[in-house]
# Entry
Amino acid sequence: MGRFAPTPSGALHLGSLYAAAASFLDARAHGGRWLVRIEDLDPPREVAGSAAGILRTLQAFGFEWDGEPVRQSRRTECYADALRKLSERGLTFQCSCSRLQLEDEIRYPGTCREHPAAITLPTATRLRVEPGRVMFCDRIQGIYSQDVAAAVGDLIIRRRDQWFAYLLAVVVDDAAQGITHVVRGADLLDNTPRQIYLQRVLGLPSPAYAHVPLLTEPNDVKLAKSRRSVPLHPPEALPQLLAVFALLGLEPPASLAATTIAEAWRWAIDAWDIKRVPKALHVHVTN
# Structure
């Protein structure tokens, strides 16, 4: 079972379509279910109406998902329960360090780990991370490993504003929804060992991961952050889909340009082979 989990911070763009298509194709090619989850746990970043717009755009591009989309903002009790279990085991602590205080640090230095946080200041909840490498085999990028403690230190699982962190929410939700295969952008590759670490601490299964290259400008700027990252245009869905299929290593025949979106998806599902996706952290988009 796969999933696509956009943040409702704006309209979908070409990079979003690319990641969603890879996840959808991988699930459907193996006869699996495919879910949509709206990751709306960061109200300051959320754009009003964005979630509904994302769903409309996915429908216009021919995506079909199983079940009703899940919204993380309605699952806070589940995250609170996971946090409570970690805290009862002595695996968390309160941290009053601000971003400004830590801006010169490569990793969290453990300032509040052994010393009580200042009770007069807002605090985040951190997970105690012990040394040791976390290794996994990415289905596209190959073997990847990271000593989470050395790379980032103790992990924030609830922020100072008391919103639950993406790390905790995504781990809890993937397990609750029975996600077995995660296909997403390579910008989350280095976050994956941290998720696996938390999965192991919580006694949850780890999905199989595959990270598709990021779409970038020729100067390596992420397309999502560039001037050419304009919202998708549903009236031109078919040519945009075919362009994405090509970026994923498929070779759409010219005849598909005169077909329907449904037929293009059927062709792509039959042709899908994750081994054809470029084994790279980014792919340049030049037109």
The chain has a mean pLDDT of 93.
